[in-house]
Amino acid sequence: MILHSGDYDRIHHGLSIALAAVANGMSCSIFVAYDAQSRLTKSQADKIPDDALFKRSLRKLIIEAKEAGSLKLYACGSSLNLMGITREELIDEFDGISGLSSFLAENEGSQYSFFI
């Protein structure tokens, strides 16, 4: 799965799909890029917009998914540089930093792919 949008509800939907997948015994890898990275920083991940359709912290949703099964969360290194975000600013639940080519190669043959 690739999370690109910084929209809270879109990220929430993507994480909900990931939670459902890992709860059903599937493994899930998420590549977080651009504006989605801004939402998953320590200063933003627990904030819920007033107009949000769902009222759950993105960080809590990630923690639930990681506890439910095999979820890996990777930040796009190029996006971090472009957006001026440091690894230290990201939430601790990230498993690492990756490039898109490496992420795609590691997930070749995945049963499902989502771009959100």
Tell me about this structure.
The structure is a single chain. The protein has helices at residues 8-23, 35-39, 58-68, 77-83, 100-106; strands at residues 2-3, 28-32, 71-76, 96-98. The N and C termini lie close together (8 Å). It has a 4-stranded parallel sheet with strand order 1-2-3-4. Helix 1 links the parallel strand 1 and strand 2 (28-32). The protein has one domain: DsrEFH-like (Hypothetical Protein Ychn, Chain: A, 3-Layer(aba) Sandwich). With 116 residues, the chain is of the alpha/beta class.
Tally of DSSP helical segments: 5
Major sheet characteristics? 4 strands, parallel
In the CATH hierarchy, what is the class? Answer: Alpha Beta
Shape: globular
The spatial strand order of the largest sheet comes to 1-2-3-4
> What's the total number of strands?
4
Structural class given helices, strands, pairing?
alpha/beta
Labels describing this entry:
116 residues; alpha/beta; Hypothetical Protein Ychn, Chain: A; 4-stranded parallel β-sheet; 5 helices; 4 strands; 40% helix; globular
SSE inventory with pairings:
Elements: E1 2-3, H1 8-23, E2 28-32, H2 35-39, H3 58-68, E3 71-76, H4 77-83, E4 96-98, H5 100-106
Parallel strand pairs: 1-2, 2-3, 3-4
Concise summary:
This protein is of the alpha/beta class and 116 residues long. Helices cover 40% and strands 14% of the residues.
